[in-house]
Inverse folding.
């Protein structure tokens, strides 16, 4: 069963034909060719597919494309405006990524996290990204990266990015 | 993982939705947050032929106190519950629960109505609703009926909601007096379904006598369970550590957990025992606060 | 602080240079295998067995072929026509590509459905009807060795049991004698369970065969592209795919950790189909397929024993292993090392007597063995030695830190010959443990613990002081399928002094694009920012055995340094020529040669490179390029001292890791930021098997937790805030003194955590618990002991 949907992705409007069962992540990756959004599981567990749907972070592997009809989607490709987004900068400065596979999902999740809680504690960040699995980094530096971005977005001085090696 | 094909409509009114449901009968499924249904469809454990997406129907999403009730619209998202002022200040049990339900992204989609309509004893809201003695409004083209939560859960994935009906609102009597409530579950890691979960609401008078007690249990029974004997031990009594222990023991005896990767039956009973004690204490603390 | 020889602008070794690869990953411009979309590309999905052991009676593809979009269904019988239904494993065993008659584990590949898009392929998969005749599966490796167990590999002529191989090392008789005579002998039975690496990107490929050119381009998630090309040529050379006709491209990889070393049947089927239909074929597995069928790690049953004196002097160890390999031995080990480098298991302690033996068996489970960031079975070895050392300390009544301090090999005793035949290159174990103890404030913690115990509170402190062994390996001993385990680097410096360097390894997140550039910058003084690194394309990169087992820095990193030094020698000749002095009169400072005593007479490396193209001495070869294939003289032996503090709820037995201090010694450090990041990541992958992860099978061989709902990969909430530090004991034989670090934490963390938990529970008389240690397992153990009702 095919249907036409219209979505605004990173500010650009697209009309595409999808099957009713087409998962949003597949439309984003395969029809719109925005392959920054990844797939890491089949049980809505890993968060690699996280995008913003009308500003809210969601797992695009568990949303039908037709559910997004008429809505706005933001993906990692739309984050950098004039240079890197503070979160992207935070991840780079604090080594918040290794293989980079979880990173787009982490970033998009963190966008909403900081929007709702501009100055989160470490505990709040850890719970806030608990729907995103990273197998490489051990999370320490992701937490630091989000704290860094928070400071930057609040207009405060950013914390040191030196590794805390004894 | 990809669902089998199906047909789909997103009606803009309840009336349209009812007519679609009547038309498709058993073959149709309601799509709310989709975070129980779509995962099952992806695994092809569920293959409905028709989806009625109720997300475009206005009037199903609200949190308000009115006429002695806290009213929660069926389409209210977990996140909305979590962020609501009235919930945070007066019903911390929901904040306790929603923090432990899945993860932030799932909570942005998952609805309170869907959480109980799914009829899964592993979900967290059923126990909470049992502890709070919620009433559930179920609507169809024939009108709206109200079902007490005690009569809502029929069996595994089965509830009072019939194929032609839609759960529209959950109503919770506004507690009075010194009331506290709390929820906690043991989980293997964050976001997991409960190994065992306990919801408690308690009201005490100035003499410390319990005038209301609700205790609901998560994932330790084929259907969400109210720990009736435990409640009886406390109701009308001055609450003591001894009585709380007895209540906890009854709850651990009256549930009927099944063995799975989370633990065997004896372990789960033992954890119910520990949790009931702890959560009653926590609810009491809040009642006193 | 780490001292750097180069300026920040050059960013040689020791600088925390920000990673060059990050910009593309951060902006969604990484290029992973599933991102590749080629014109006319077909999609493949795989039908898998619901049974662990069954005869295939029939496969009916009719309904599947009727699904719109499905164009073919491939079975074992189809592949048999081309003799492609079996393939060799990296351990010279054999593995089915697709079965012709019998399935050997649940989720084994049974047939492949090819369709025009992935949805149709999945629908086709659902429609393939397979009739099975289930047989009684062999799941328990001990039962597999019983005389009446069914012989699983009846395909092998003359096979009469399920035994694969026996291995041993050390002096059996001397060990036996020692154990008979020693004052104190402790013994524990341990299971290091089967786990799965579950990198967030699963495995997949796009096989693109061009009929006209008779050329295959294989994009795949592989950590060892060159080895894969050779294997493809060996397996499919007979149908025309000889090595020059095969190009393997390993694009960006979303985590590997060993899971992307083996050749999985899906890759081979994709190649076969592309070869037959002449179109690109994409196969990307689901997470559940990945968990249920791809290479596992561990599954060692170990009887560990230690002998010593009453005063706490370790005298000897004995380990007996039963290794469950699943239905074929497909562990990606160096060929001569069936137990990998398990023989490092005598640990960081000074004693001379040890014996280890292992037997491997077939069971009805998927094959694999070493894929979990684990340096070839070092994790199992370290777990055994570090647990049994704690057990020994408990037995003789000594503090485990004290006991370790007293038994460590001394700094001055390196190089040190281990009783199992290794020569440890260097180490300073006392310094590492001391730093860890100071950082965590060990003595204070023991006081706190004693207080808490009085109130019945459960607090534990666990130590692990491990020796790793990485950088496989010297060619006299180390090969995979006969190919020696060297690795390579090729550096080409352009006339303007900017460079490109290519390697036989393949980063999966380790940051090679940055660290290799830093090594070259260190040697040549060309800013790392101006050195482009390429890996993963067999058409352009020099041959190498790939990235796993922490071998990239020890091998390819060394190759880069040596190749760069060749270029520096050349630069020196050019400088002498240009400055009209002899080479002996020149002095090097990062980035330039100058005349001794006359620093104003100087040529920068950029000027010298330019001269190599424009004004080189007569008789000298023009250009500025060098290649090196590095064959390590020995392995390197990183070490670490880890201390873990846990608090356990005395009713629910929930375990909280309160603190975890990890002091690593990986020799000279190339990039502290990256080393620290590797340690963090490895620690979380050490936490995982210690407390959360295990692949669980029932007695019929059904996997009980084949999805991420039940296979419990830790989130940021479970993972504690790691505290890291380091000591530096350079490797004396390595060109830049580095040792490799990627896997140390995964190896060292589990016993530290297990030791902490056992320590917390020791008042109840607990001496050992198998990992993963969960609240439920503690409850069961205490219940069995009668501690709780
Ligand atoms: C990874 C993951 C982890 C999770 N962990 C937890 C957890 O720890 N605890 C927990 O409680 N839940 C958990 N969930 C489930 C999640 O909370 C779901 O969102 C919730 O159970 C269902 O709500 P929904 O709105 O998504 O319902 P849907 O999936 O849309 O629907 C669920 C069922 O209810 C029916 N239904 C929905 N709304 C109505 C209605 N208004 N009237 C009649 N029928 C209706 C549907 O037809 C369907 O049968 C998890 C989900 C995921 C994906
Ligand atoms: S792919 Fe969406 S949660 Fe894993
Ligand atoms: S960086 Fe590899 S999964 Fe997070």
């Amino acid at each position: 069963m095919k249907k036409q949907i219209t979505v605004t992705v990173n500010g650009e409007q697209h009309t595409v034909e999808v099957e009713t069962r087409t998962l949003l992540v597949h439309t984003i990756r395969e029809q719109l060719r925005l392959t920054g959004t990844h797939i890491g599981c089949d049980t809505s567990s890993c968060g690699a597919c996280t995008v913003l749907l009308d500003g809210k972070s969601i797992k695009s592997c568990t949303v039908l494309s037709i559910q997004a009809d008429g809505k706005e989607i933001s993906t990692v490709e739309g984050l950098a405006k004039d240079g890197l987004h503070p979160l992207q900068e935070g991840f780079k400065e604090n080594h918040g990524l290794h293989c980079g596979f979880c990173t787009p999902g982490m970033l998009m999740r963190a966008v909403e996290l900081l929007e709702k809680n501009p100055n989160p504690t470490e505990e709040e960040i850890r719970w806030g990204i608990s729907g995103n699995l990273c197998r490489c980094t051990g999370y320490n530096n992701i937490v630091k990266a989000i704290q860094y971005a928070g400071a930057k977005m609040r207009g405060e001085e950013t914390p040191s990015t030196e590794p805390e090696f004894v | 993982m990809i669902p089998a094909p199906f047909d789909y409509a997103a009606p803009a009114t309840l009336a349209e939705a009812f007519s679609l449901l009547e038309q498709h009968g058993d073959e149709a499924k309601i799509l709310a947050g989709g975070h129980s249904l779509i995962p099952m469809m992806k695994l092809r454990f569920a293959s409905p032929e028709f989806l009625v997406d109720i997300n475009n129907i206005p009037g199903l999403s609200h949190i308000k106190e009115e006429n002695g009730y806290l009213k929660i619209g069926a389409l209210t998202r977990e996140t909305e519950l979590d962020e609501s002022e009235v919930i945070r200040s007066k019903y911390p049990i929901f904040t306790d629960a929603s923090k432990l339900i899945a993860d932030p992204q799932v909570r942005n989609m998952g609805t309170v109505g869907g959480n109980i309509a799914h009829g899964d004893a592993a979900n967290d809201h059923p126990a909470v609703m049992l502890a709070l003695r919620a009433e559930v409004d179920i609507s169809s083209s024939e009108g709206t009926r109200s079902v007490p939560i005690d009569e809502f859960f029929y069996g595994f994935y089965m509830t009072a909601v019939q194929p032609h009906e839609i759960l529209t609102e959950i109503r919770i009597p506004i507690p009075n007096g010194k009331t506290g409530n709390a929820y906690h579950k043991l989980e293997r890691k964050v976001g997991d379904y409960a190994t065992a979960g306990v919801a408690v609401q308690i009201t005490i008078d100035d003499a410390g006598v319990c005038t209301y007690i609700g205790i609901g249990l998560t994932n330790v029974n084929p259907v969400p369970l109210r720990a009736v004997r435990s409640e009886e031990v406390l109701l009308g009594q001055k609450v003591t550590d001894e009585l709380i222990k007895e209540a906890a023991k009854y709850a651990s005896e009256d549930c009927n957990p099944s063995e799975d990767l989370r633990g065997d039956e004896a372990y789960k009973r033992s954890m119910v025992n520990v949790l009931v004690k702890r959560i009653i204490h926590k609810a009491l603390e809040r009642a006193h606060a | 602080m780490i001292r750097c020889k180069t300026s920040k602008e050059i960013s040689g070794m020791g600088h925390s240079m920000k990673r060059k690869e990050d910009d593309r990953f951060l902006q969604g411009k990484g290029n992973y295998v599933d991102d590749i979309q080629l014109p006319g590309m077909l999609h493949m999905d795989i039908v898998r067995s619901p049974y662990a052991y069954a005869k295939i009676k029939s496969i009916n593809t009719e309904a599947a072929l009727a699904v719109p979009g499905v164009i073919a269904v491939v079975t074992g019988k189809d592949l048999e026509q081309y003799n492609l239904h079996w393939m060799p494993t990296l351990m010279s065993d054999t593995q089915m590509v697709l079965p012709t008659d019998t399935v050997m584990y649940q989720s084994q590949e049974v047939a492949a459905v090819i369709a025009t898009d992935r949805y149709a392929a999945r629908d086709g998969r659902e429609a393939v009807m397979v009739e099975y005749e289930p047989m009684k599966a062999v799941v328990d490796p001990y039962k597999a060795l019983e005389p009446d167990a069914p012989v699983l590999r009846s395909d092998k002529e003359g096979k009469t049991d399920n035994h694969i191989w026996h291995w041993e090392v050390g002096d059996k008789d001397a060990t036996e004698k020692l154990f008979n005579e020693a004052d104190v002998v402790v013994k524990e039975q341990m299971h290091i369970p089967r786990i799965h690496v579950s990198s967030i990107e699963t495995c997949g490929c796009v096989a693109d065969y061009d009929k006209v050119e008779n050329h295959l381009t294989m994009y795949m998630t592989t950590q060892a592209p060159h080895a894969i090309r050779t294997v493809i040529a060996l397996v499919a050379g007979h149908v025309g795919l000889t090595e020059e006709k095969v190009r393997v491209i390993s694009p960006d990889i979303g985590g590997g950790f060993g899971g992307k070393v083996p050749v999985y049947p899906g890759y081979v089927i994709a190649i076969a189909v592309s070869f037959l239909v002449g179109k690109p074929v994409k196969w990307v597995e689901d997470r559940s397929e990945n968990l249920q069928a791809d290479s596992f790690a561990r599954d060692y049953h170990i009887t560990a024993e230690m002998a010593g004196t009453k005063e706490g002097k370790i005298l000897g160890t004995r380990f007996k292993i039963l290794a469950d390999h699943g239905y074929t031995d497909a562990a990606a080990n160096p060929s001569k090392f069936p137990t990998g480098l398990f023989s490092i298991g005598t640990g960081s302690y000074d004693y001379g007597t040890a014996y280890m033996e292992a037997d491997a068996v077939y069971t009805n489970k998927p094959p694999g063995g070493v894929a979990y960031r684990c340096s070839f079975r070092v994790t199992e070895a370290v777990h055994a030695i570090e647990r049994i050392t704690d057990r020994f300390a408990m037995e003789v009544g000594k503090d485990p830190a004290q006991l370790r301090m007293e038994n460590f090999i001394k700094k001055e005793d390196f190089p040190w010959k281990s009783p199992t035949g290794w020569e440890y290159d260097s180490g300073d174990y006392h310094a590492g443990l001391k730093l860890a103890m100071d950082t965590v404030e060990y003595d204070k913690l023991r006081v706190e613990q004693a207080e808490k115990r009085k109130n019945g509170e459960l607090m534990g402190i666990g130590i692990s002081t491990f020796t790793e062994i990485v950088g496989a390996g010297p060619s006299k001993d180390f090969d995979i399928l006969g190919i020696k385990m060297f690795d390579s680097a090729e550096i080409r410096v352009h006339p303007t002094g900017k460079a490109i360097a290519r390697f036989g390894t393949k980063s999966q997140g380790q940051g090679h694009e940055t660290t290799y550039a830093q090594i070259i910058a260190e040697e040549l003084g060309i800013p790392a920012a101006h050195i482009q690194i390429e890996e993963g394309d067999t058409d352009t990169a020099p041959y190498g055995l790939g990235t796993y087992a922490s071998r990239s820095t020890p091998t390819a990193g060394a190759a880069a340094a040596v190749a760069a030094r060749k270029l520096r020698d050349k630069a020196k000749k050019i400088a002498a020529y240009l400055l009209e002095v002899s080479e002996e009169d020149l002095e090097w400072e990062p980035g330039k040669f100058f005349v001794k005593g006359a620093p104003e007479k100087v040529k920068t490396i950029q000027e010298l490179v330019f001269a190599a193209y424009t004004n080189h001495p007569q008789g000298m070869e023009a250009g500025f390029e060098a290649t090196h294939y590095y064959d390590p003289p020995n392995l390197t032996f990183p070490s670490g001292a880890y201390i873990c503090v846990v608090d356990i709820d005395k009713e629910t037995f929930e375990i909280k890791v309160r603190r975890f201090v990890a002091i690593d010694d990986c020799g000279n450090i190339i990039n502290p930021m990256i080393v620290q990041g590797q340690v963090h990541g490895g620690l979380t992958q050490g936490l995982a098997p210690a407390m959360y992860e295990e692949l669980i099978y029932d007695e019929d061989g059904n996997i009980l937790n084949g999805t991420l709902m039940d296979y419990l990969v830790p989130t940021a909430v479970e993972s504690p805030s790691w505290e890291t530090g380091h000591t530096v004991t350079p490797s004396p034989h390595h060109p830049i003194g580095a040792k490799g670090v990627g896997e140390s934490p995964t190896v060292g963390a589990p016993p530290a955590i297990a030791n902490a938990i056992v320590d917390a529970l020791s008042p109840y008389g607990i001496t050992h618990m198998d990992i993963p240690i969960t609240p439920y397992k503690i409850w069961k153990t205490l219940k069995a002991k009668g501690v709780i009702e």
User: Anything to note?
Assistant: The pocket of FE2/S2 (inorganic) cluster (ligand 2) is lined by residues A 39-41, 44-49, 59, 61 (CB under 6 Å). Residues 86-153 of chain A form a domain with the DNA polymerase; domain 1 fold (CATH 1.10.150.120). Chain A touches chain C through 64 residues (CB under 8 Å). The longest helix of chain A spans residues 103-116.
